[in-house]
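Box 3.1 — From sequence to structure: Catalase
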Amino acid sequence: MHRFRRHRRPAAPTPAAPPGELRGAHHESYLGGTPEAERAILERLARDLMAVQLKTAARRGAGAGVDRAFHAKAILGVDNATLRFRPDLPEDLRAGFARPGAAYPVVVRLSNASGAHAPDSAPDLRGAALRVQAGPDRVHDLLMTNFPVSHARDAREFVAFAKATAGADTTVRRAVALYVRLPLAVGRSAAARMRRNVLAGARRQVRSLALETYWSRAAVLWGDAGPVRYRLRPAAGPPPAPPVPDADPDRLTRELTARLARTDVVFELCVQRYVDARRTPVEDGAAEWRDEDAPPVPVATLTIPRQDLGTADARAAALAVDRLAFDPWNTTEEFRPLGNLNRARKAAYEASAAHRRGHRFHTPTPLRNVVVGRLLAAAFGVVNRVVPWHRLPTPVGILNLMIFRQVLRRHNLIDVDADAAAAPPRPHPLPPPVPEELRTRRSYDGTYNDLSAPTMGAVGSVFGRHVPAVHRPDLFDTPNAVVVSRELLRRDAFLPARSLNVLAAAWIQFQVHDWVNHGRCPTAVKGVEVPLPPGTTWRNTPGGPPENVMRFGDDEAVRPGDGRRPPLLYANNASAWWDGAEVYGADETVARSLREPDGGAALRLEHGHLPAGPDGVPLTGFRENWWLGLSVMHTLFAREHNTVCEALRAEYPRMDEDAVYHTARLVVSALIAKIHTLEWTPAILDTEAIDVSLNANWAGPRGWLTRLGAWLVEERALTGIPETLPDHHGVPYSLTEDFVTIYRMHPLIPDEFAFADHRSGRALGTLGLDDVLGARTETAFRRIGLANALYSFGNAHPGAITLFNYPRALQTFERDGEIIDLSVVDIVRTRRRGVPRYNDFLAAVHKPRIRRFEDLSPDPDTVARLKDVYRTVDDIDTMVGLFAENPPEGFGFSDTAFRVFILTATRRLQSDRFLTVDFRPEIYTPLGMDWIHRNGMNSVILRHCPELAGFLPRNSGAFAPWRPTAPDAPRAAGARRPR
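Predicted structure (token representation):
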């Protein structure tokens, strides 16, 4: 096993130490060989522990709720104890808060060790938890049990024991757990050792918890003194336990109550110093540090003062103490917990506490789902080599997709943020309490969606991966990205997507701006230079000189490359949650500036339009890459927000304006998510299997055959995601670099737009994309009007997502005082972000690699041009390969991109607290829930432009082509520009 040697400043050798071995040097070894591998193992163990909690709760009966996995039954909880360090504290033990004579307030919780609320007479270990308040924002949690060693040698044994004994609240169940389930989990010899340790401590009769000694059992650092174990033992001369009937199920509580009514309860805190790896091992929690090898040294006195535990104040304090989450990692670096078992306790305690508080959730997977899922995965793996999923009968195709989503969850959820997740873990201050208002409303920046991991998915969190990153600086400019763009992407002639309208193109950019936003460095600070083909030049600024390179700003990396690790972690400057941030803003300052003055709930509008900023671009949550399609969408949903506000005020007149605003934001954000799931996606992926699957995502499957498949394969899919619990599937939620890559859908945007009056069908003129970009947008929009813009976009086709169809206007796109070719930027950034080339991408999402260019496209001209640009099929850029694929019938984008989509589409809903466990009337209000249920894109359009009712498709959604006015009338000739 790999060893991680942690060096500290050498201290004087103890007499017992062999020559040359110092008290400050010790070893820590990691499960799986590395901190990162151990972290993944411990995350699985944490999920197992949450399953233990659910099993224990089920034993207690309906409505019992989730309790602590261990030490569930409190015997004593007080918040007025004192820890005072000895005046003669040894010099080498003086560190941090451990100072001679220093005194600190302490919270004390004494408990039984089991996860079940058994009578105090039942065989069990007992525990002590101390929270030492060493400063305003600094605590040290000390956790101990009344037996010198742990039953578990390491983390695997720790959770195996918990799983085996979960719910073992009777003699028979406990015997089955210890003598049947435990040997199956850890082996006979380990099980025998664990039973000896547990039974030795549990069989001993305990008369009073004030008379017990409690051991830490695992080591911690103690400043420069190095590793120590600590213990709490009764101070000399405590009175014997008063008589309490053994039959009393709460006799230990009653004994302590009687004792504290008469006298203080006093303990000594002692430490044992590390000697050597044999006699005082750090990693083996089941090995005792014997007193003869490491004598205990008294360092402090803990005093629980005399008091009446029956008063209302004392009962309230006990209840508050019982709600605390003790964790040995609530400490400082000087007192860092050591060893595998302590690292397991971090994962276990954090998961257990979050689960108990309703901050983290676990949904057990039925055994039939595991067995049937694996069998079907193998079967479909064979079938799909011959028949792809989209050519199977619809019910079988849907089942195939469910199975493939499970395969992707197992293999393509990659947790990239090892630094932020701290592997190995670091001590931390006591986590701040969850702000009460954020339990019922979305934060501005996406924090506190997951209450157990407040920064998950928030602004500034990193992009994840579905495909392992490939860092090849030598291939950043191979083949030349400008050549790729000119030869394979440039729009030769507009290729329409006839099943859609331009609203679909506007919608997806509207959504992407909510989800993802890479930070860009200014070109002058950190620019990327793309060499141009010989004989060509580029003007990088308006009116600038011709140059032989194309220049634009690089992405901001979370960490710089250091020669060993490439800079492949990038922060998302948008919240990854579906929270409407493109409308509302991603920070409080922006969000408040968009509202009506004096804290009004409504968004600011001027005559129904968004107010323009100093640069001419409307003031809204996300203003980059602005064009008329975004103006339409932002205006429409700003109006919708204000209408929801009016309805809330009318229904709930006592609701204050801030509550109205945040509730309306919840409602509109959820409505947007519903529209995307149930309307936009089935429009661009127009097959029965996708329509049924996405409706099942939102509302549960219909039809007995589909329901049977869900019951066999994924039981939680029976209800629809909004009725399930949040589930990140073992990896913190984020959007990924691969997701960004598949949503490069710029070919959807036409280079010019024809506008018409919806009332008469009279042509208003034609505008090029350049005419409706940036500051020019609002002038055109206000002339045309919202109803005519919607009508004109509804009757126009977007471009097909294919090669040779990239908008020419975006290949000479002026942004922030620079001129860029957005297609070149897309290619270069995808390469530099470490997204693999197309063939490697195929393999990573479980598709066969292509061997010839002809495998990618049946069109001879396309194949010839691909061969001209790329040396081999392995060099093809991912974006080019996705555009070149022949998609399944009815699909608007490639099957390869779809594989990333089916993993993310469910995850965006299932990870979000406000679209699962908190998608309920108490949070959204009954009116809000009804609003989401009854509405969609058609009703949103008609609420704000009722005059368009006759033009919307009868049997399709708003993203399908609309009915034009007077289709048989000749088109009016005249001006090219709207009047």
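Summary of the box: DSSP finds 29 helices and 19 strands in the chain.
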